[in-house]
Prior knowledge:
5 strands; alpha+beta; 28% helix; Nuclear Transport Factor 2, Chain: A
Amino acid sequence: MAVEFLLRRQDHPHDHPDSRFMFTKPLVSTPAALDAFGLDAILRCLLVLQQLAVKHQGLDYGQAFDDTTTSDGPPLWFIEDGEVVTALLPSDY
Length: 93
């Protein structure tokens, strides 16, 4: 069964100065995120973030997706730190 994700609301509104990240830096992923979701799902989520960043002229540095196929799985986080975009689980932080 394919993983389906729902993007959580970000902490800052889209017009806030902190919503300036485009999620176009090189992607790295923790082993736990790769094991939990796979590269295909991570790349699909990153594409959603990139499209939303263009639409809103930037996003908050931290974004989270919930797996809608399970109620007890961890969310998939993305953090852009200025050098890379990291896909990770909360337990990796």
